[in-house]
Specification:
heterodimer, A: 370 residues, alpha/beta, Rossmann fold, Elongation Factor Tu (Ef-tu), domain 3, 3 domains, 6-stranded antiparallel barrel, 7 helices, 17 strands, globular, B: 389 residues, Aspartate Aminotransferase, domain 1, Aspartate Aminotransferase, domain 2, 2 domains, 15 helices, 14 strands
Chain lengths: 370, 389
């Protein structure tokens, strides 16, 4: 009989985390279900054209209801913990600020770093839990030879969420369980059915939890309006790579690198956003060939499988969630800065996104693209 | 696991004698109190006996009692029933949401609302109420005892002010009824709300005292129940239970059980404060109902504290639960001028008639231990200790 632990399960009300709760409960552990209340989905409802009613997303009452019913069904204590303030401070505000300065943020990584694997871990320890289990598709294991906790890609590569988890520290990993790391999504649904979970067929959520319909521009308008702030004027020039002004744009936050639609200029060949200069409020456009680049600078580096980068290292690098990791050389060029040099030029390297470094299935670490 | 329940301001268990009194009305005494036959007469008599008992608890005439579904309905009936568009209402920042949101709705319907502040002990200043009076003031609504701190408000003084100004005075006595003795004539109020489940009757029944001759606009339209003040077939079993709970409360006043309750509360409070540094009572220095103690614990997250204690079998509360069940800082503690941090670090202990002296031992053992662990794991507390040393 394995040792009985007290395990807090981060329950979102979805199939994955609900199945995790049922799994660890079935293993005989003391299980406590926790749901983080992060954002009031009705808060910006009806403002600046935002939808009035929002359902079926993280933190919606429907999801809390589902999580509560699962907890009841499997017989575990369940609590909703309020982290709205921290979420707004550490995720929503940076999200808005990044767009307004011409970058394309990933709020899920910020939420993992600051909320799910930080605040929730604190609560879990405070209430007596040894570790926190989540429904992420990833694996965590201790490597005796290196003396380090490793983050590894899951069996089901199509569900791999390690890209969003690159910021986890050794301390956080040591107290984390990812019970779904060795399973495929269909297997998880099957297990959910076996445990009699009513939500086994609930569809996956895809979009950013606090941005209904994925319309981040409307969200930024509504958020600033609610706070009584006016949208800063980030309108400026549309220029070519050679610096030739070919038009004007309504604000840099409407653009992301690689974007083709909505540029407002008609030319013979397709034009893409190839760069956004926040300081000059310039949006640089060019042909598809201009989108490719061989290097990127990464800042705010977090290393997982190694303690330091003493010499350049061969890795495969993912520059966005849906990107095939590409072979590259990784080297440290300053205290908290790395240079990634790809073997082949990569399309649309986007400031604000993360570059995550892999050695086969092992996550070496990651950094924010400068 | 032995579970100790110290959250009686949220709800109370139905007392065995109350359950016994109401039981026949689920079975052989099932009649509709409006029916003219034997079955109706039997339940009508039971409803009217209960009305007499509730009236004696509040010191009013039986005909002045309107049975409702609970405190929220009573508050809504009093507010919506006494004002109309153009009227001015005075209330306080620490009222229950049943009053605050009913006033907000009245505002949307064309009333004006003044919300008077409270001091650091959660006390309303009667002079603030007097100063808030306007020519069109129609209603003052101030609670008798606050649900979070247990602090008793100066309702008699406010009653005099209302009388002099000739405006209606509604008192939300949900947290005071059966804890302290009440006399509506001494308070000189025109309406008073009470709730069954806060006084060991079941959830889903309450009452509103309405002074004789006061015209009340009903909330519901239907039959002529409750002298046309509250349409709907009576919740006979609930009403009987409320009557029995009122009777039990009056008997325990006679036996001086309030003193026993406050002695138990004080032992809990002093026992915790003696063991825990950086803790204090919210509302200290004001008169309180005997069952409530609201204690802040510096650098402790109340939410984590309540969960920790619940996992060990002790039920207490912090703040207010929002619709998801997550905790928001209490609007009462914020209105007292507590910082959001201190409000979040506050825990409410509230005793009930079922609690025994033994029940106090568990919190005295668990709370200091929980505070120590939570502080140990609080990033903020650590940082501060380092700065000090």
């Amino acid at each position: 009989m394995p040792t009985v632990k007290t395990i807090a399960v981060a329950m979102s009300g979805g199939v994955d985390s609900s199945t995790v709760a049922a799994m660890v409960r079935a293993e005989g552990h003391n299980v406590i279900g926790l749901t983080m209340q992060l954002w009031n989905q009705r808060r910006l409802g009806g403002q600046e054209g935002m939808p009035e009613q929002v359902t079926g997303r993280c933190c919606s009452l429907d999801d809390v209801y589902d999580a509560r019913r699962v907890a009841e069904h499997i017989g575990i204590p369940y609590y909703v913990v309020n982290h709205e303030e921290r979420f707004e401070h550490d995720v929503v505000r940076p999200f808005v600020a990044e767009y307004l300065s011409g970058r394309t943020p990933i709020p899920c990584s910020l939420c993992n770093n600051h909320l799910k694997f930080d605040q929730l871990h604190v609560v879990a320890r405070q209430i007596g839990a040894d570790c926190v289990a989540t429904g992420h598709y990833a694996r965590v294991e201790y490597d005796n030879t290196r003396g380090r906790w490793l983050l590894k890609r899951p069996t089901d590569r199509s569900k791999d969420q390690t890209y969003f988890l690159f910021g986890l520290t050794q301390e956080q990993l040591s107290r984390t369980l990812f019970p779904l790391g060795g399973m495929t999504k269909p297997e998880v649904r099957e297990l959910a059915r076996k445990h009699g979970l009513a939500l086994a067929e609930k569809p996956d959520s895809q979009e950013i939890c606090f941005v209904p319909g994925g319309d981040y521009k409307r969200f930024i308008d509504a958020y600033l309006a609610e706070r009584g702030e006016t949208l800063p004027d980030t309108a400026g020039e549309l220029v070519t790579a050679n610096g030739e002004v070919i038009g004007e744009h309504g604000g840099i936050h409407n653009f992301t690198v690689g974007q083709r639609k909505g540029l407002g200029v008609a030319t013979g060949s397709p034009l893409y956003v190839i760069q956004i200069n926040g300081a000059d409020k310039q949006v640089v456009v060019g042909g598809d060939e201009h989108l490719y680049s061989r290097t990127l600078h990464g800042r705010r580096v977090n290393l997982i499988s190694v303690g330091d980068l003493r010499e350049p290292m061969r890795v495969a690098v993912k520059i966005r969630h849906r990107h095939e990791a590409a072979p590259a050389m990784l080297e440290k060029i300053a205290a908290d800065e790395v240079l990634v040099t790809f073997d082949q030029p990569q399309r649309a390297i986007t400031p604000g996104q993360a570059a995550v470094f892999y050695n086969d299935a092992v996550v070496v670490g990651g950094a924010w693209i400068a | 696991m032995r579970r100790i329940y110290l959250d009686n301001n949220a709800t109370t268990p139905v007392l065995p004698e109350v359950l016994e009194a109401m039981r026949p009305f689920f079975g052989e005494r099932f009649g509709n109190a409006s029916s003219i036959h034997h079955h109706g007469q039997e339940t009508r008599a039971a409803v009217e006996r209960a009305r007499d008992l509730v009236a004696s608890l509040l010191g009013c005439r039986s005909t002045e009692i309107v049975f409702t579904s609970g405190g929220t309905e009573s508050d809504n009936l009093a507010i919506a029933g006494l004002v109309s568009a153009g009227d001015h209402i005075i209330t306080s920042s620490i009222e229950h949401h049943a009053v605050l949101h009913a006033c907000k709705h009245a505002e949307e319907m064309g009333c004006e609302v003044t919300c008077v502040p409270v001091d650091g002990r959660s006390l309303v200043n009667p002079d603030d109420v007097r100063r808030a009076l306007r020519p069109n003031t129609k209603l003052i609504s101030i609670m008798m005892a606050n649900n979070e701190t247990g602090v008793l408000q100066p309702v008699e003084e406010i009653g005099r002010i209302a009388g002099e100004a000739d405006v209606f005075f509604h008192v939300d006595a949900v947290q005071a009824a059966a804890k302290v003795s009440i006399d509506v004539n001494r308070i000189a109020c025109d309406a008073m709300s009470i709730s069954g489940h806060k006084m060991h009757a079941p959830q889903g029944v309450g009452a509103l005292y309405v002074r004789k001759g006061t015209h009340l606009q009903p909330l519901f339209y239907g039959g002529r129940h409750e002298r046309s003040r509250r349409a709907g077939t009576e919740n006979v079993a609930g009403i009987v239970a409320l009557g029995k709970a009122a009777e039990t409360a009056m008997q325990s006043f006679e036996r001086g059980e309030g003193k026993k309750m406050s002695a138990m509360r004080d032992r809990l409070e002093q026992g915790i404060l003696a063991q825990v540094e950086g803790a204090g009572v919210n509302g200290e220095g004001a008169l309180r109902v005997p069952n409530t103690s609201n204690i802040y614990f510096e650098h402790v997250e109340g939410e984590a504290m309540v969960i920790s204690l619940d996992l060990k079998g002790l039920a207490v509360s912090t703040g207010a639960a929002c619709s998801s069940g997550a905790i928001e800082p209490s609007h009462v503690l914020m209105a007292m001028g507590l910082s959001a941090d201190r409000a979040r670090s506050s825990i409410r202990f509230s005793l009930g008639k079922q609690n025994t002296a033994e029940d106090i031992d568990l919190p005295l053992a668990l709370v200091p231990e929980a505070v120590a662990r939570l502080r140990e794991l609080s990033p903020r507390y650590k940082k501060q200790s380092i700065t000090i040393s």
